[in-house]
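Write out this protein's structure.
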Amino acid sequence: MTLNGPSLANSAVAASARRKAYLNIVLPLFITSIIAYMDRINLSYAALTMNADLGFTDEIFGLGAGIFFAGYVLFEIPGALIAERYSPKWWLARIMVTWGIASGLMAFVTTPWGFYTLRFLLGVAEASLYPVLYASCIPRWFGARDRPRAIALMLASLQTSSIIGAPLAGWLIGLSLFHFKGWQGLFILEAIPAIIFGLVLVFWMADWPKDAAWLTPEEKQFLTEQYETEVAAKSAARHFSVWQALQDAEVLKLCGTYFLWITGFWGFGYWMPTVLKAASGWSNLEVGWMIVVPMCLSLAFMLWIGDHSSRTGEKRWHGAVGMFLAAAGMLLGTMTESPTLAFLFMCLAAIGVYAPFGVWWSYPTTFLSGSAAAGAIGLINSFGNIGGFVGPYLIGFLKDSTGSYTSGWLYLACSLTAAGLLILTFRRNVPTDSGT
């Protein structure tokens, strides 16, 4: 009994600390990500009427959608390093307020160059958001084995934002509010939560366990020791400086893989409403509601993948299978003229492009920590954001050149297949904590 006492006490402290971390770290980050993703993809719904109102071609829209990521890339690594060194929560608050302002100004766009400029500035404002979440926030509160589950729960925000945002956007773009057209009202109304929640965030979150008023002293000690033990284990295996991390072969492989994946992810994400409307003939509101279906399916699958990876410790196949499913959905979608089958294959593609996120962002922090992790994740995300430029632009360019979305969808399928094959070449990795 005496021998079991401390173990049981430690388990209770660990379980309590994790519950509080989910409530006070994962939940506010989940809300942050919902707002961020809604402000990113509201453009895809605004396009259903905005392009005709402003005379934008598919190529102009694709370039504007993609140029967001050019701004993002330039400030990705510096922003991640600033947050890691100083304060993640204050950096996140700065990001939210500035991107809210830039997103709201999108309502006043009238020319292609104005469109490109504001999309670029929106990318600059939001730069480093997700690297800060993955490299600075989550690892300080969750051990290596728990991270896939925690990240998958946080990134359930991606589909949740579409589940909320797609019907809302489909409804708003059909309204005229205060003399604004529907797409203008969409940009203004969806910008306000970013500014408000940016201020809320600094009072809700804590940067380190030692700063959290909502933890007991024992819980603070447990989380601090968990983090320090993991960092020490990584340093004992190999200590990475920021520069060494940016040159590491495994990090560079992650960069290439993420470029291929996000080319497919954002090519699919920004064009999905337009392609679905063209294939089905549904109204804007019907398109908004129907997109809820693939988002719900992909949400369930992503959470299952993240939980299963946390329980088994396996990462490679948990990431690669999603890529192959997405590629199959896009490839098969080009082979049918049936609106029903096209929609089903779109659901399969959605499941695949979203499924691996929780596992994916838990991988770099299994061998990197601190500034090295922040810099490397910033670099990986930068390569992904280059793909975020390539995918949307290429779909628009190919549509204008060929008159069809088929060639663009085939390119995305090839890109995702290559990403899946690369994931299978990653080294097997044993988590550095016991998962207690």
